Amino acid sequence: MTDLLGVPPALLFGQLLVGLINGSFYAMMSLGVAIIFGMLRIGNFVHGAQYMLGAFGAWYLLRLPELLPGLGLPSLGYWWAFFIVPVVVGMIGALMERLFIRRVYDLEHAYGLLLTVGLAMVIEGLFNVAYGAAGQTYGVPDALKGGINLGFMFLPIYRAWVIGAALVICFGAWFVIERTKLGSYLRAATENPDLVRAFGINVPRMLMLTYAFGVGLAGLAGVMAAPIYQVSPQMGQSIIVTIFAVVVIGGMGSIFGAIVSGLMLGLIEGLTKVFYPEASTTVIFIIMTIVLVFRPAGLFGRETSSHTVADLSSGRVGSILENSRLWLLILAVIGAALPFVVYPIFGMKILCLALFACAYNLIFGYVGLLAFGHAAFYGSAAYVTAHAATAWGLPPEISIFLGICVSTMIGALFGWLAIRRQGLYFAMITLALAQIVYFYAVQSGWTHGEDGIQSVPRGRLFGFIDLNNSLNMYYVTLAVFLAGFAFVNRIVRSPFGRTLKSIRENEPRAISLGYHADRFKLIAFILSAMLSGVAGSMKAIIFQLASLADVFFMTSADVLLMTLIGGVGTMLGPVVGATIVAVLQREFASFGAWVVAMQGAIFVLCVLFLRKGVIGTLEEFLSNREERRHSALDEIKPMDRSPLSQTAEADAGGVR
Amino acid sequence: MHKNALQDDYIIEAEGLTKTFSGFSAVRNVNLKVRRHSIHALIGPNGAGKTTTFNLITKFLSPTAGCIRFNGEDITALRPADVALKGIIRSFQISAVFPRMTVGENVEIALQRPLGCSYHFWQSERSLGNLTERVDQLLDAVGLLGYRNRPAAGLSYGRKRALEIATTLALDPEMMLLDEPMSGLGHEDVERISELIRKVAAQRTILMVEHNLSVVAALSDNITVLAAGQVLSEGPYSVVSQDPRVVEAYIGSVDE
Ligand SMILES: Nc1ncnc2c1ncn2[C@@H]1O[C@H](COP(=O)(O)OP(=O)(O)O)[C@@H](O)[C@H]1O
Ligand SMILES: [Mg+2]
């Protein structure tokens, strides 16, 4: 047999087939995500979990007699699953929409993403508790067993069926949405709900059905995937980030783009496995990066000219909770006493996380950009510091410095790629970029894969402070934290910080005054990456370990959760949030596998009931009290009258 | 920035300005010349493309075709912030203040920009020096002095518009673009803002979109009428108001 391009044809076609199969799933999943995003403006991060539900649904149907003994139920095979499961999963989706997602439609996009991240953690966490990491196998249905010998390769019938069915389903859905009356109602409902309501259409129900439809597609993909991949709780988690990247490449909200990019990227991934296997896990993310540089709106997306960031901050100028000197002092005192109350190592964990959250708050709270890839900065700094200290034997201060340099540079690169995008788009891009760093860490030799870099020597700081002494290490960490905390507060209260605030409050107006908003955002992003690097480098020295968990996306989700619980855009919020999360994680540790589900539940509860966070809520309480006092005073003083007297309008003056 | 302006009388010259939104031309082949130190009004029915024209001149939108010159210099390829740095400051159709900042801080943000320290993230705010005096002057000019420490969000609509003008004036722009400065204002406020516009126009050029025809008649030296994205008529109020095409296209759809 002759080789094609130096590769045996069987290998080439085999991988192309695998690529096409993966591509079929990418297309079906991205289609659902694109529909949900296009119609509901929700970045459905729980889509991966819903796909997993589909696969488990098929597996449950097969095992009905064992699951519900005594009812005399038959075991239902693949074809039953093919029709029943998508409907059931879609109904679960409708229920989720009804109970949770509906509540965040009118809020900033960030909350929709956070909510679905939380839901995904709950669902996947629970399945993990029940089934662990092991996968279940699901047989190929009898009718589709066997294969055809095409001469140059062997084509299993089931795989041909998956590809064919996926194509029909995808293009059918595209046709319904883009070319039929029902689809045009759907699109109108999202663009102008009042108008559609005036036609007597029940808009909330329509949105619920749309969500259910998108979720049903994920369920169907799950059923189809069951005989090919292992049915495991992790199957959705590994695919969802890729799906987000596919949707970004196709162009957010472009249904056609999602389908075509899904298929195409699956194929490209397959080809990469043949010609350059090292890159096969990252190729999609790298393509996304290239697409973003040349076509920021994606391959099939339309350029939008919207200039808005989200103002989620709940800090209040002049409040006692924002007095930076006072709190720096208080935190220094509490910090100094802490190692006598808790183990120093736990104290250091809190300080590291708090610094990381302060750094994150800079971009999320003070710029208003939902970054979802800060693990890349934290983790890369941790790895570089660990490597420098371990393999090169460098002293801790130089190792830390190198780690910070690397995270800053990665921050500059990622920021440059992502900064022109807002909202959900920004979140998806940063998430996908961070995934490149993650896979790099998985594959590179120097990072030691699953083991990570262990036994990092702490060494002597500046040659004379022995960090192996845990109190020395603690107070050095405290000093670094306080310096970082003070630095963030200085940034926020600098001329630069003021300009950032104006951009956050009304970006078009700030631009019209001559401020290059993107430059300000980029600088803030780089500073945030740098400070995250400080936290990551410290972490590597303190825990003497840099591992995959540091660059994994859960770390990005954790830092977001800390900032959210504490209070976005408040000075103390990240510190309080980090403390709460650290304590909860310690308390939950005894629950083992339940941790993820519990953390997810906290996410959901926070988004639904504590959007301002602990500090933001406290702030609100304080400011209400102050207002009541003021209005009591106003009644004594006569109100001033001026020529411009008109009733105050409720609008906040933003241009949307 | 030098001015070779004296020999050419126009501060803004837009030629063949066209903007197409996925097949629909919001602005088509518009030629617009604005004379230096004049008040030029842009009028026309809703949807005529006035705001779009503003967005094109200030580069908040990129023109599909056409070019824009400011003081004889081609500014078509500039970014919106750069257009502002050249001295063209715009307002927005919906009031555009920084809602959670105080009235004084709104003005300070503009005053801070020419100081060149806006990127200084390592400095304290105190490094800005004392801007209070300038802030007070500007707020006094628009009658908001008593509101300096109030959050801008709590102002009435009319005061928000006055604050916008104060913020814009803080940059001492050569040219101001005002998009419907009177919309949503009561009678008294309209008079007050008209007076303000007349006062600040002494040193600069103003291009404004306005629906209130009596204001337009009283203030403007020159008028351009847009309809369906195209220039319908041009000239001083006396000429334009007699143009039968304007009467036909405009009167029927004036909403005030
Ligand atoms: N970003 C946009 N995308 C699509 N159509 C637009 C956009 N901006 C304006 N238009 C359309 O262009 C036309 C002119 O709008 P505009 O310039 O706002 O009119 P006006 O004269 O009332 O200010 C309108 O029909 C409007 O719907
Ligand atoms: Mg308009």
TrEMBL record, chain A:
Annotated protein name in UniProt: Branched-chain amino acid ABC transporter permease
Record region (Disordered): 633-656
Localization terms from the record: Cell membrane
Main location group: membrane
Pfam families: BPD_transp_2
Membrane topology label: Multi-pass membrane protein
UniProt KW Transmembrane keyword: yes
UniProt keywords, alphabetically: Cell membrane, Membrane, Transmembrane, Transmembrane helix
UniProt signal peptide: none
PANTHER family registered for this protein in UniProt: ABC TRANSPORTER ATP-BINDING PROTEIN (PTHR30482:SF17), HIGH-AFFINITY BRANCHED-CHAIN AMINO ACID TRANSPORT SYSTEM PERMEASE (PTHR30482)
Secreted in keyword set: no
Segments crossing the lipid bilayer: 12-37, 44-62, 77-101, 113-134, 154-177, 207-229, 235-268, 275-294, 326-346, 353-378, 398-417, 424-441, 473-492, 522-547, 559-584, 591-610
TrEMBL record, chain B:
InterPro entries from the UniProt entry: AAA+_ATPase, ABC_AA/LPS_Transport, ABC_transporter-like_ATP-bd, P-loop_NTPase
Name recorded for this polypeptide: ABC transporter ATP-binding protein
Pfam families reported in the protein's UniProt record: ABC_tran
Domain ABC transporter: 12-253
Record GO terms (molecular function): ATP binding
Keywords in alphabetical order: ATP-binding, Nucleotide-binding, Transport
Organism, scientific name: Microvirga puerhi
PROSITE patterns: ABC_TRANSPORTER_2 (PS50893)
